[in-house]
Amino acid sequence: MQFIDLATQQKRIRPKIEENIKAVLDHGRYIMGPEINELETRLAAYAGTGRAISCSSGTDALLIALMAYDVGPGDAVFTSPFTFVATAEVIGVLGATPVFVDIDPVTFNIDPEKLQEAVDDVRRESGLTPRGVIAVDLFGIPADYDRIGTFAKKNGLFVIEDAAQSFGAEYYGKKACAGSLADIACTSFFPAKPLGCYGDGGAIFTDNGELAEKMVSLRVHGMGSNKYDNIRLGANGRMDTIQAAILLAKLDIFPEEIELRQEVAGTYTEGLMQITGIRPPSVPEQMTSAWAQYSILAKDWNHRETLQSGLKDAGIPTAIYYPIPLHLQTAFSNLGYREGDFPISEDCASRIFSLPMHPYLAKQDRERIVDVFRDS
Ligand SMILES: *Cc1c(COP(=O)(O)O)cnc(C)c1O
């Protein structure tokens, strides 16, 4: 059994993928070919956003979004310590300061209740200027954008949605990356994400035309009217045409795959709810997860070890997202955080783990996984 099975999907749409790649080989426009524009139009329509801008990765999407706000030294950007490193890395790379805010223990997303205190502390004590929030839709469940948005407006901050794991998710009838959830949304098409290409790729979404124009420029070295007219410093942030061609083939079946993910998660949750001592994921009402990961909490570190090794013996792979919260990572040691600063993130990191999750996980495999829990 595989943790994420990309081969079954490929088998299903291989002729279309080959046809799309062949079209790129035939026209030869490897950079910014016609597939790029077609993909952007389809992504914007799918998400319900004014504008989708394809780019080189989810990390570069976040970087370009922060650059659009001229984030730099002296600025504070608030985010979760319980996420993939890229979310906070981009803040630090620009010379700004990531300020971590602990998470909600149920959704694993940034706790809106704790944001105001964090901003007030920064204003009072640090000499930094609060600029914005990067909220992460961890494992595919959208963050609480209503409350985050209200808080941000009151404090004059921007909101960026890190939707690297949530493309295809829903929040009160809107899709993740919909223009109305945050000022800018960023997603990733890394192969293992819910919508993945065959290399690195990402996209940026916004309803704000001015920001969109600026990010289109930032994506190509800060270009002006043409690429040898440089009006600002930017990045080499384009998506390859071949990756766009692959994503176009995958987008055709993506809505159905999101449905299949609900089925897989449904079998898991139904079975695991009856087992004491573990906590299966809980999706808030009015939301749908994109199920990038199906992550459960064991009782403690030892219990996780026991469960993981039992599953491993039964041939079932598991993974830990994330074993060390970012405030305790060496790369952020300059920020001066200590163990105990974000107890909920630390507690989750010590006992969380994820089960195999992809749209093609057979019913008998899901049931076998649940059985291993039942017998352990
Ligand atoms: C994967 C991921 C990213 C980075 O995306 P890449 O395409 O790998 O650069 C950023 N944030 C989160 C939460 C992610 O899961």
Structure in words:
The chain is an alpha/beta fold and 376 residues long. Helix content is 40%, strand content 14%. The protein contains twelve helices and twelve strands. It has helices at 7-27, 34-47, 58-68, 86-93, 115-125, 145-155, 209-219, 241-251, 254-272, 301-313, 343-351, 363-375; strands at 51-55, 75-79, 97-100, 129-136, 158-162, 170-171, 174-175, 184-188, 202-206, 287-288, 294-297, 352-355. The strands form three sheets. Strands 1-9-8-5-4-2-3 form a seven-stranded mixed sheet, with helices on both faces. Strands 7-6-10 form a three-stranded antiparallel sheet, with no helix packed on it. Strand 6 and strand 7 (174-175) form a beta hairpin. The longest helix is centred in the first third of the chain and has 21 residues, at 7-27. It is globular. It starts with 6 loop residues before the first helix and ends with a helix. The structure holds pyridoxal-5'-phosphate (PLP).
